[in-house]
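User: Before I run my own analysis I want an independent prediction to cross-check against. Here's the chain; please return only the structure tokens and, at the end, one sentence I can use as a sanity check.
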Amino acid sequence: MAELFANALELMVIGMGIVFLFLTLLVVLVNGMTFVIHRFFAERPGPTPASPPEPASEQDAEVIAAISAAVHRYRQRHST
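Assistant: Structure tokens:
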């Protein structure tokens, strides 16, 4: 009976050791791949805008006013 427990303990230690080694190797490989990806395939920052956007023109202001008036009139007619 003692021999059976010794064999079971030996098998358990070997199995747990193999799993531990595999997981350790997996962590090392994932960290290595992360390093390689960040080192060689890092995203470059995009171009920055050269100048601020132009202010709205007089015609744009008229269009915005017309749209706002139409929305206001629609809401007045269809409000409950």
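Sanity check: The chain has a mean pLDDT of 88.
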